[in-house]
Each structure stands twice: as C-alpha cells, then as structure tokens.
Amino acid sequence: MFSKACEYGIRAVVYIAHKSLEGQRVSLKEIADAIDSPVAFTAKILQQLSRNGLVDSVKGASGGFEMSEGRIREVRLADIVSVVDGNRVYEGCGLGLKKCNEHKPCPVHWEFVEVRDRLKALLETTSIHDMTLGVGSGISYLKR
Amino acid sequence: MFSKACEYGIRAVVYIAHKSLEGQRVSLKEIADAIDSPVAFTAKILQQLSRNGLVDSVKGASGGFEMSEGRIREVRLADIVSVVDGNRVYEGCGLGLKKCNEHKPCPVHWEFVEVRDRLKALLETTSIHDMTLGVGSGISYLKR
DNA sequence: TTTAATTAGGACATTTTTGTCCGATTAAAT
DNA sequence: ATTTAATCGGACAAAAATGTCCTAATTAAA
Q1: Does the beta carbon of B120 lie under 8 angstroms from any beta carbon of chain A?
Q2: Is A57 within 7 A of strand C by CB distance?
Q3: Protein-to-nucleotide distance from the CA of B69 to the C1' of D1, whole angstroms
Q4: Is the pLDDT of residue B142 over 80?
Q5: Which of the nucleotides lies closest to B63 (Cα–C1')?
Q6: Triad B97, B98, B100: Cα angle to 5°
Q7: I want to staple A123 with a disulfide (CB 3.0 to 4.6 A). Which of A21, A28, A77, B32 is the partner?
Q8: Rounded distance between C-alpha atoms, residue A16 and residue A132, angstroms
Q9: How far is CA A76 from CA A21, A70, A72, A123, B50, in A?
Q10: What is the tens place of the pLDDT at every residue in B16-37?
Q11: Looking at the complex, does the CB of residue B15 fall below 8 Å from at least one CB of chain A?
Q12: Is the pLDDT of residue B46 over 90?
C-alpha cells in the first residue's frame, strides 16, 4: 500500500506525537528503537517531514524531534503519505494505465475508484492525534 | 497497489480472454502491443501465469496464448494478483508491522482492515469475463 | 572554551523491481 | 527436411527503493 519509507514515517510521527503530548522531545535513536526501524534511513525520512513542516526538529545536544499539540491535531495521515509517497495512492489507475479516467476507464475503474475513495477519506480524516490515542494506553502498538 | 508486473499481467489476461472469446489465439508481440507493455518482461509474466494454469500457451509457429471460455468465467482477478504479487495485498499491516493483528493492532488497524476487506472482495468476485465485457464494446480500455 | 550529543546532508552500498538479450525448444508451413 | 514463427528459460542490465557511513553544523553541558 505504502512504501517502507512512508510506513516508517507514519510510525515515527505517531511516536513523536505520543511523546510530545507527554512533554518529551525525542532523539532519532530513541525513535528508531521505539518503532523498530533502521536509524539512518529513518533520519532521511524525518528530514523530509521536518523540511515540510510536519514535525519540528531541534539540533544540538538534547535536541531531537517534537510536535506542538496544535499540529498533532491538525496533521492528517494523508499529509505524511503525500510528503513521502506523493499522490500515487490516490491518483493512478489500478492497472497502471496512464490515461485511465471516467471517459476512458480501464476494466476495473469504477470498482477501484470506490475502494480508493474510501482509503482517501480514511487518510484525510485521521489525524495524528487520533492515532496516538491507543498507543499510550496499550491498545495499539508501533513495533513488533 | 499492485506491482508493475501484476498490472501488465492483468491487462494481458484481459486481452487474451477478449480475443479468445472471439476464437483467436494471440502472440506475445500482439499482446504487448495491445496493452502497451515491454515485450520481454511481459513474456516472463505470461510464463508465470501459464505455469500456474491461468492461461494456456501453445509453442511453435502460429502458437500463442489463449483461455477457454470456462476458465475465462472461473478465473478471478484475485488469482492473477495472487500468482504475481503473492498475498501481500491482503495480508500485512498498513504500517508495515510484522505482528500487527486484532490482538496487537497498529494505530490504524481497524480502519485499514475495512478498506482491505473491500478490496479483497472486489478482487475475489471479479472474473476475467467480467473485465472483458467493456473491452470489445469500447466502454473500457487496456492501453493509453 | 572544550566536549559531547545531536540533526543535516552528501556519497555510497545493497537489494528489489523492472526490463533486455540470446540460445534452446517446439511445431506449423513450405 | 528445412525454414520460419513462436514460447521457454537462463543470464544479464538498468533503475528504483532501501539502507549505511561519514563529515559538517549546531547547541547544551561540563
């Protein structure tokens, strides 16, 4: 569904948000350990997310990553996917046809549109805050 | 959603089925041209589909690929996806967690399950015959 | 002011996916 | 029988995705 990079990105952001809500800034190492991802690769993804304003990064000793509560409530799953994977999840034909559309549909166009619209709605309505809810309480998990 | 290989595979099978219903066996070249795919790469995918009994191949001059009407009605989109891409579309967590399940769900587990189940149902109910319906009549397209 | 901890970012390495080439095999047509 | 048109399958090549390493820049703490 998503690239590995995007999966790590989502997990990382949820972890950062979860810790930020507890008032804690987290380091790259801590993040990678918490979400079970390759450190240096995760760094690249976080750079990308930071440049796009989805997370805040602080350099230097005792630096790390954090998010304001406002952003935690504003930022949607779709924003992360968009930054890391672009729009290929939403756009693009299920059969890989470049010019598949309602006027020239592929054989499964209409059926796929339904599923994709549903996925799109899910990504656009789910905030980072929503995703952190289960994490602290042990209802949902970010590794293993 | 699917790999390129799988996309080519689906388009190829729909084209083969469409032509088979008109009593015509088709060559690799004709297929690749009709669905706008790389010839040699398409050959690999068709070998795989042929080995798995999803299409019939005939060697030698005037050989090519074909499907019986029975198989055209039996074979589902899910069968092609399964052979080419395996089960990664159905199984596997949206966030890439190895052990995400109903007991240890990731933060978006339940929402994703819904979308994926819908996709699964679509793939399992759509037969190749269903997909060929629009192709001859110009309602749906396999290239461009 | 030096040291230690940290992110930023470029270059490189590995793996996977996608794609090509060619010789072997098969079978129809000449 | 020979030629020709086809698939089969192995080896190779290129591109994209994933992952690593190292140096520079930054900042808090000693």
Answers
A1: no
A2: yes
A3: 38
A4: yes
A5: D6
A6: 65
A7: A77
A8: 9
A9: 16, 12, 8, 7, 44
A10: 999 999 999 999 999 999 999 9
A11: no
A12: yes
pTM tops 0.85: yes
A144: pLDDT strictly greater than 80:
no
Q: Where does chain A have alpha helices with state H?
A: 4-20, 28-35, 39-51, 69-74, 77-85, 109-125, 128-136
Q: How far, in Å, CA of B88 to CA of B48, rounded?
A: 18
Please state whether strand C lies within 7 Å of residue A27 at its CB atom. Answer: yes
Q: Distance in angstroms, CA of A13 to C1' of D7?
A: 50
The residues facing A64 across adjacent strands are: A58
**Are B144 and A8 within 8 A, CB to CB?**
no
Q: What is the pLDDT of residues A37-84, one digit of tens each?
A: 999 999 999 999 999 999 999 999 999 999 999 999 999 999 999 999
Element (DSSP H or E) covering residue A58: strand A56-58
Distance (Å) of CA B25 to CA A9, A49, B61: 48, 52, 12
A27 touching B, CB under 8 A?
Answer: no
Residue B64 phi, psi (nearest 5): 150, -155
CB neighbours of A141 closer than 8 A, spacing ≥ 6?
A135, B97, B100, B104, B105, B106
Q: Is the CB of A46 under 7 A from strand C?
A: yes
CA of B15 to C1' of D1 (A): 37
B16 vs chain A: nearest CA distance in angstroms?
14
Q: Domains, chain A, ranges and CATH?
A: 4-137 (1.10.10.10)
Separation in Å, CA of A121 to nearest CA in chain B? 11
Q: Are B10 and B2 in contact (CB under 8 A)?
A: yes
Please state, as a whole number, how many other Cβ atoms lie within 10 Å of the Cβ of residue A130. 17
